[in-house]
Amino acid sequence: MSEPPDLESLRLLVSVGELGSLGRAARAAGIAQPSASKRVAVLERRLGLPLLQRTPRGSALTPEGKMVADWAVQVLDAADELMRGVTALRERRRAELRVAASMTVAEYLVPRWLGEFQSRQPEVQVGLTVANSAEVARLVGEGDLELGFVEGPGVPPGLESRVVGQDRLVVVVAPGHPWTRRRRALTPAELAATPLAVREAGSGTRETLARALYGHPAAPPRLELGSNAAVKGAVSAGVAPAVLSAYAVESEVAAGRLIEIPVDGIGLGRWLRAVWRRGRHLTGPAADLLSIASRPA
């Protein structure tokens, strides 16, 4: 039996199918196209199957490649679940304070909060789980974690909450996108009718956008991706516009790598909240971290 393929090669193959070309998949993965081509060639030799065919519009998956990519999605999901489980077990063994945060909060706010917390209480081990807002709410609601931070438009049922910050969503496109030449702002109807690169179901960002565009006929997503970084990669590759947290795209917009497009007649602001199980009184390290997070930046 041949040696199983490595996970990164499988991720690249799945990305080719999602983005429609090897070049776009390489850019989204942050590698050079020759490296991506070599990686796919090694995968083809290892599996003994042709996976890509070159067309005038780019690289497309062969029928065998499509089947392998479908199986690869299952393998990658299982691998991600394995690592989440291992991480949870490791953190549960070591941590005295277990918290969870949605991706935007975890990437752009939690590091500052934890830095201050650890300077005050260096003896406390903190275990942080990063997930989308729906998963954070589930973990906190089931009592697995003491405290969570979410970015959805409302308070999840069964939880107490406290506002710890504000955020706004922004529409971003790659430089050269036709929207960059517009002389007027987008309307909500135009935004809703555009196939976007979006976060996965359960993401607070996606839920906020869906509520903001409620009542406008919505086009199916062009891509559904599991992280802010993946969505930004798709936008940079010119696959589709996206709506993301201003925190997530601040540096790219400042550097001109992404362009923010104004939208009229729609509210894209949202509150960031700390959540904990209803009826649970936070004490000790959890209460201290909540106090730090609740202070203005």
UniProtKB/TrEMBL annotation:
The keyword Methyltransferase does not apply. Keywords: DNA-binding, Transcription, Transcription regulation. The keyword Nucleotidyltransferase does not apply. Gene3D superfamilies: Periplasmic binding protein-like II, Winged helix-like DNA-binding domain superfamily/Winged helix DNA-binding domain. One of its GO terms (molecular function) is transcription cis-regulatory region binding. Residues 5-62 form the HTH lysR-type domain. It holds the Pfam family LysR_substrate. Transmembrane segments: none annotated. Belongs to the LysR transcriptional regulatory family. PANTHER family: HTH-TYPE TRANSCRIPTIONAL REGULATOR, HTH-TYPE TRANSCRIPTIONAL REGULATOR CYSL. This is LysR family transcriptional regulator.
